[in-house]
Write a structure and sequence with these properties.
Blueprint lengths: L1 H8 L3 H12 L7 E6 L4 E6 L19 H11 L10 E8 L2 E7 L9 E2 L3 H15 L24 H5 L17 H4 L6 H6 L15 H15 L3 H13 L7 E3 L13 E3 L1 H12 L3 E2 L2 E2 L5 H5 L18 E2 L17 E5 L3 E6 L4 E7 L6 H18 L2
Antiparallel strand pairs: 1-2, 3-4, 3-13, 5-7, 6-7, 8-9, 10-11, 11-12, 12-13
Helix pairs in contact: 3-12, 4-8
């Protein structure tokens, strides 16, 4: 309106501001920084952003926090050292619902969509929860996949897929070109390839980490929503992501048009924090119920089976309890939830401390066992540096 009335109508910017903009915005226009460029016949305006998590406001300075300790720990992570290949791309911290620290490597920013890899498994679990809330999914009912109707695979449910207990044969290794996880990359229909695997164990009797299970789950969810990629995309964006102010995320699809959760998801760092904050808030967001009551409890219920990694697993997320052979992040409280993606992507949620940490990087797979202790030390420093 300012541009039109100044350069088309010929009024002064002051008149437009006083007689139009201030009145029709109930004074909110006074919050805008406005520039008028007569020679270019152009105007610009910028309004201070609302604070995170609802808006795009940047990190605040938290009184009582030891930022020197946090910065020193971050310095180490943004600088290569030893043989771990830290390669940190971004680090952000939310405490008591406020964004209190963030740092980005060159070429990255708060909203840069970064490959999340298996962080997408957590997104799939959240999407399933929204569908349960809306009565579109029963996680304990059979999947209904036609190719499973003639054998015992018909007993597999979305719950089995979420908890990695389907019993399907699957090799989740990346050092062998012919492993199931690597063969996915040359399959036009990834979910069908995963669903074609034979049943190796009774559903629910064994744990086997499987990206294939999440891809099958994605096809099941899509079928419940109408069957097309557009149906999945519309539901994911409108019923989950946009409702929690996640505006820089996309889950790509395979050639058959099925979302590739857990492998081909991209999301910004501040948005990763929002996902963690939703978990911390038990599925509530800005006074709205996003996930059904008890869904986060379901996600953090321990699968009572050996995982092979020594860590506890829930439904679409790693846990930090002590019932396994070892804790994922031993310096953090036992109620910590960890969404972990390949190459060093983390969303760390500590409900008892109202703390969420998002960290992305590019660590090679064979270095991950060396990286996890470093992530533990970094998170511990952040935890102890907050008031």
């Amino acid at each position: 309106m300012l541009c039109s009335k100044v350069f088309v109508t010929g009024q002064s910017a002051e008149t437009v501001f006083d007689e139009d903009l201030i009145k029709i915005t109930n004074g909110a226009a006074l919050l805008a920084k406005v520039n008028v460029y007569p020679s270019e016949r152009a105007t610009t305006s910028k309004v201070a952003g609302e604070a995170w998590p609802l808006g795009a406001g940047s990190a605040i300075s938290l009184p009582g926090a030891d930022y020197s300790a946090i910065t020193a720990a971050a310095d180490a992570h943004f600088t290569e050292h030893g043989d771990v290949q830290v390669k940190t791309s971004s680090l952000a911290v939310a405490y008591r619902g406020k964004l209190v620290y963030e740092r980005y490597a060159e070429g990255f920013g708060p909203d840069t969509p970064i490959y999340g890899f298996s962080l997408g498994k957590t997104l799939a679990a959240l999407m399933a929860g929204v569908m349960v809330e809306q009565g579109k999914l029963d996680i304990h009912a059979p999947t209904g996949l036609s190719e499973w109707q003639q054998d015992d695979r018909a007993r597999i449910t979305p719950h089995h897929l979420l908890t990695m207990t389907s019993g399907l044969s699957w090799s989740e290794t990346y050092d062998k070109p012919t492993s199931d996880a690597n063969l996915l990359f040359i399959k036009d229909d990834m979910a069908t390839f995963a669903a074609s695997k034979p049943l190796q164990n009774t559903p629910g009797s064994t744990y086997n980490y499987s990206s294939g299970s999440t891809l099958i789950l994605a096809s099941v969810l899509q079928a419940r929503l109408g069957g097309s990629l557009a149906d999945s995309h519309r539901f994911l964006q409108s019923q989950l992501l946009r409702r929690i102010s996640v505006n820089h995320a996309v889950v790509q699809a395979d050639a058959s048009g099925t979302p590739v959760f857990g492998m081909q998801d991209l999301i910004g760092t501040r948005d990763l924090l929002r996902v963690g904050q939703l978990l911390l808030q038990e599925g509530q967001w800005n006074g709205e119920t996003i996930l059904p009551a008890g869904w986060v409890d379901y996600m953090r219920t321990v699968v009572p089976l050996p995982t092979g990694f020594g860590f506890e697993y829930g439904a679409g997320i790693w846990l930090n309890g002590t019932s396994g052979e070892r804790q994922f992040l031993p310096s953090l409280p036992a109620d910590t939830l960890i969404a972990y993606g390949l190459r060093g992507r983390f969303i760390i949620v500590v409900p008892s401390l109202e703390l969420v940490i998002a960290r992305t990087g590019n660590t090679l797979d064979m270095k991950m066992l060396g990286l996890i202790p470093e992530i533990d030390a970094l998170a511990a420093t952040i935890m102890t540096s907050l008031p």
